[in-house]
Amino acid sequence: MSLPPTGMPEYKAYPPTAVETKTTSFVFAVHVLNHVLNRTLDKATGEVSGVNARIILFIAHNNEHGLETYQSDIKSKFSITRSTCSRVITLMEEKGLLTRDSETRDGRSNALHLTKKSQAFVAHFTEVAQEIEDQMMKGIDDGTSSLAAQTMQKMLDNLKEIDKKN
């Protein structure tokens, strides 16, 4: 399977202006990488994209670990309001991506389940994501890749510290 073109202009490094710093250039590079990666994934995976794709993958991950997923889990995981979550889940039901089943232990809770359509999406997404990652990492040795992953995890941890303070 060949990957679709991103439709994005190639990112070219540029000399920072007097106002810019190494940090803002790095933040911009991460932003561009994220944007291109998301567009590539969206084009390669077809009609299911964005938040719907992330919700499906979250439920699939929970299923793999023997966990039920509830609307409240989606609300918490994606930091969205209850009404937004309800609208998204309802639309996903209408698209045939999810079903809600009443949970016997608490009549107010509805477990979310993937349909055959969304299960097929998970299988396709997994294959496409691996192809994209292989292409993205081409020419990068394991040591460099490992260091980059460790560095990004440290950056994420540092940002979480800021988030805790706010």
UniProtKB/TrEMBL annotation:
<keyword id="KW-0805">Transcription regulation</keyword>
<dbReference type="InterPro" id="IPR036388">
    <property type="entry name" value="WH-like_DNA-bd_sf"/>
</dbReference>
<feature type="domain" description="HTH marR-type">
    <location>
        <begin position="23"/>
        <end position="161"/>
    </location>
</feature>
<dbReference type="Pfam" id="PF12802">
    <property type="entry name" value="MarR_2"/>
</dbReference>
<dbReference type="GO" id="GO:0003677">
    <property type="term" value="F:DNA binding"/>
</dbReference>
<keyword id="KW-0804">Transcription</keyword>
<dbReference type="InterPro" id="IPR000835">
    <property type="entry name" value="HTH_MarR-typ"/>
</dbReference>
<keyword id="KW-0238">DNA-binding</keyword>
<dbReference type="InterPro" id="IPR036390">
    <property type="entry name" value="WH_DNA-bd_sf"/>
</dbReference>
<protein>
    <recommendedName>
        <fullName>HTH marR-type domain-containing protein</fullName>
    </recommendedName>
</protein>
<dbReference type="GO" id="GO:0003700">
    <property type="term" value="F:DNA-binding transcription factor activity"/>
</dbReference>
